[in-house]
Amino acid sequence: MLLLLLLLLLLLLLLLLLLLLLLLLLLLLLLLLLLLLLLLLLLLLLLLLLLPLLLLLPLLLLLLLLLLLLLLLLLLLLLLLVLLLLVPLLLLPPPPPPPLLLLLLLPLLLLLLPLLLLLLLLLLLPLLLLLLLLLLLLLLLLLYYYYYYYYYYFYYYFYYYFYYYYYYCYYYYYNYYYYYFYYYYYNYYYYYYYYYYYYYYYYYYTTTTTTTTTTTIHSYKKRIYTMAATTTYSPYRGACMFYKQPLFLWDFNHNCSCLSPTHILGHLS
Length: 269
Hints:
single chain
């Protein structure tokens, strides 16, 4: 009987020890949760201080939420394990006592658990930082190519219009230049043509003998007058064309604006 009582006392002590261990486990889990929350808050503060880019904040918040969800899942798994350990103690007959080595390793494992979680976080943080750096580089590349093609488009746009107006003005300049010289030489040709024509008839009238009839002279005068009055580019229909030159040798003292056909024919009569 004494032995049975001693065994029962030992079993009760073991149960109490197990319950104490479970309570210690729960306390350690709570401490771990608090530590993790503090670490998350510190990480948030560091990220807010080190990452002023507002575009990256939503992504960081999402990542932190994912981490919190993972931690909650881990806690739920631990609680399920604890419950699974308690159920046999309550429903089943008491198991044999655990070996001493396991009882010694259990607190060590519980102490190593936060270190393992920290190691996991330290492994995840570089990956997160690399991901953020890659996203930042991608954003910079997108901005660079956007502005590059933006200015590239405007450069060729203005380049095209510059050459368009350049050749447009160039074409009109040479067109005008061509027409100017065309009319210039055309009038110049008529100028010397009439100069020669009138000078010839002046010489003809001044060297004609008295045997020339007046009707022939009158017909010549009429032909000269008609040709000078009806020609489009005749310099005798208005003012003189170039440099106010006198038309005939006997008109050096006259302004060429007075060189009308009647004035010239008056000299010839």
